[in-house]
Amino acid sequence: MVKNYKKLIGNYFDKHSFVESNIKSFDYFLDKRLQALVDDVGEIVPTIIPQEVENFMIKLGKISIGKPEITEADGSKRDIYPTETRLRKLTYAAPITLKVSSVINGVTNESFDAYLGKMPIMIKSKHCHLYGLKKEELIEKGEDSNDRGGYFILNGNERVLIMVEDLASNKFFVKKTKIGPSKFVGKLFSQKSSYRIPHTIEQMKDGILYISFTRFKRVPIIPLIKALGVVSDQEIMESISKDDSFDDVLMNLYDSIDIKSQEEALDFVAKKVGITQKEVRVERVREYLDKYLLPHVGVDSKDRKLKAYNLCKLIKRFLLVSKGKMNSPDQDHYMNKRLKLSGDLLEDLFRINVRSLVQDILYNFQRLVKRGKFTSLKIIIREQLLSSRIHSAMATGSWVGGRSGISQNMQRTNGIDTVSHLQRVVSLLTATQENFDARALHSTHWGRLCPVETPEGSPIGLRKNLSMLANITRIEPNEAKLKEKLKEVGLKSL
Question: Which residue intervals of the chain bear CATH 3.90.1100.10?
Answer without folding.
Answer: 17-166+337-465
